[in-house]
Amino acid sequence: MAAMTVARALLKTGPAVAACAVLGSIGTREVNSLWYGTLRKPAVQPPPVAFPVVWTALYSDLAVTSAVALDALPEEERPAYARALAANLVLNAGWCWVAFAGHRLGWAVPTAAVLAASSVDLVRRTAAAEGLAGAALAPYAAWCTFATVLGAALWRANRGRRP
Known about the structure:
Layout: H1 6-27, H2 34-37, H3 50-72, H4 78-101, H5 105-129, H6 131-157
Helix pairs in contact: 1-3, 1-4, 3-4, 3-5, 3-6, 4-5, 5-6
Main location: membrane
GO biological process, one term: tetrapyrrole metabolic process
Keywords: Membrane, Signal, Transmembrane, Transmembrane helix
């Protein structure tokens, strides 16, 4: 196999992360719905404008740092990293569908917790491959962890409500 370069790796991670972003975006259309609008929001809820800004930056960061990690890893370690990234992206997009499209706030909390754990693992794997890339990816794991806390607070505030 030819040596990987960051640019070549980005041709793989970029579309994968973009697909996750598109699928997640479709799944979160419900944030503009009557259902979501009537939910009681926790005090820690950021303003609505924050979410697309933050997620765009984090998805860009994820694509680039994952490409850097793939480039830095020995060839035999790349498949395991790619599987961890793929699992993380599936969890990320899936959480959007469970929470918003599915109106399942209770199920969204453990889904978000697994996503947060996967994100921390991805930061660990990235840092092991390339320290600075791991540090650059840390905000992604932090935001996913915050999303878990936020989702739990949203669920607690709205327990018993029907979609």
